[in-house]
Amino acid sequence: MGNLAEEKKYTYGDYIKWDNEIRYELIDGAAYAMAGVSTAHQRISRKILTQFDIFLRGKTCEIFSAPFDVRLNSDTFDDIVVQPDLLVICDKSKLDSKSVSGAPDMVIEILSNSNTRHDTIVKFRLYQKAGVREYWIIDPGTKSVQVYILKNKKYGIGSIYREDDVVPVHILDGFQINLADVFYDIVESDADESETLIKQKISEVFKEAGASDEQIKKAIDLWSRK
């Protein structure tokens, strides 16, 4: 793929041509490399996905997990492509064979040491603007969930649920998640080993593309600030 160290704006048309081992998201045309996930992240995602999948059998809505491209502004610039950890789609017309066009009905993001600002600030604003009806932010470190419900095009003050609480899923009548079943075996390390690995991979990709040391540093700094 091209040299992403350059300050260039991309669209989904560029994005789908990239072929390498690093996953990216596009935020207003800027490419952001995504870090790997922890063991705790995988366990939480698997358990929540399973509960949603069982509840949704035979129903209109469907749950998906990353990696799956969500094109939040596909009807305009098509320069915002995100990969939520989990998402619920109730309007199947938004689905094609590779992506979702428009806002999911619900998004769940699971925090890690490297993506906290990205999920709690950057993506929060994107999901609110796009019209995602319900947004959960799960913190493995504190074993908690923040739930935001869209009202009048704004997320209000989030409700916080702890590891022994039961969380209602507002977009799905009669469904709830018992957090004791989600967090019982979660031990989140303070060290995010994947951060070092992803920086090494970014450096390797840009060196292969002929980027200078300065361009590689800019790319890594951009990823670190996400």
Tell me what you see in this structure:
This protein is an alpha+beta fold. The chain has a domain at 39-183: tt1808, chain A (Alpha-Beta Complex). Helix content is 31%, strand content 24%. It has helices spanning 12-15, 39-56, 116-130, 179-183, 193-208, 213-224, and strands spanning 24-27, 30-33, 62-65, 69-71, 81-82, 86-89, 99-101, 106-110, 134-139, 144-151, 154-155, 159-161, 166-168, 176-178. The strands form four sheets. Strands 3, 6, 8, 9, 10, 11 and 12 form a seven-stranded mixed β-sheet that branches. Strands 5-4-7 form a three-stranded mixed β-sheet, with no helix packed on it. It has a two-stranded antiparallel ribbon with strand order 1-2. Helix 5 (193-208) runs antiparallel to helix 6 (213-224). The longest helix is centred in the N-terminal third of the chain and has 18 residues, at 39-56. The chain starts with 11 loop residues before the first helix and ends with a helix. 33% of the residues are buried. The model is unreliable at 190-194 (pLDDT under 50).
The secondary structure category is alpha+beta
The unreliable regions are: 190-194
Strand percentage: 15-25%
From the 3D structure, determine the CATH topology of one domain. Answer: tt1808, chain A
| Main beta-sheet strand count, sense and barrel state | 7 strands, mixed
- First and last CA, distance: 21 Å
